[in-house]
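Researcher: Quick test of sequence recovery. Tokens follow.
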């Protein structure tokens, strides 16, 4: 299948507390993990995976690596073959080597930057309130969604040159519309 989307960016920062404050208070990201060395893992409110930004305390502000998510673990094997055929050395990192991720295909791009590809990262959903991740992961507490149908469209008939088209009536009750 190949690459789905960017997974995370890993940066060294000069002042971890100032960076944390900026990303939480100004940008609205949420810290989802903090390592003993001060490394922070953050996510945006609409993300389901555990993090998309890694900030590491450092004496220099540098870009460490970028990671992309692939659809299936088998995609890592297929991409390994393609990348090596291109002439780039690769190596697999065991699950857990990269925080909260499954196995990772690691290599250095022709630009000199490190790239990671992975298929699995811990999934925590997108429920956050005031910068705190909900600890409750019970799917019985899923918020109910209600279909939005403007009142004016319920009785209107749409017309075209060939025929009149009426809006489709839904047999789905409000209780059946749930998020997952």
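Model:
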């Amino acid at each position: 299948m190949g690459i789905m989307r960017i997974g995370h960016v890993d940066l060294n920062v000069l002042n971890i507390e100032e960076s944390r404050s900026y990303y939480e208070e100004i940008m609205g990201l949420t810290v989802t993990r903090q390592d003993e060395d001060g490394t922070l893992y953050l996510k945006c409110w609409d993300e389901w995976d555990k993090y998309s930004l890694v900030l590491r305390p450092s004496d220099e502000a540098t870009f460490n690596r970028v990671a992309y998510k692939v659809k299936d673990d088998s995609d890592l094997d297929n991409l390994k073959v393609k990348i090596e055929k291109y002439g780039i050395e690769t190596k697999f990192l065991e699950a857990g080597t990269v925080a909260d991720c499954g196995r990772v295909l690691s290599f250095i791009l022709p630009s000199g930057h490190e790239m990671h590809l992975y298929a699995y990262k811990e999934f925590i959903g997108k429920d956050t309130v005031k910068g705190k991740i909900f600890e409750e992961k019970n799917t019985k507490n899923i918020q109910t969604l209600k279909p939005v149908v403007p009142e004016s469209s319920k009785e209107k008939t749409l017309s075209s040159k060939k025929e009149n088209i009426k809006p489709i009536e839904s047999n789905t009750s409000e209780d059946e519309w749930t998020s997952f």
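The longest helix spans residues 73-86.
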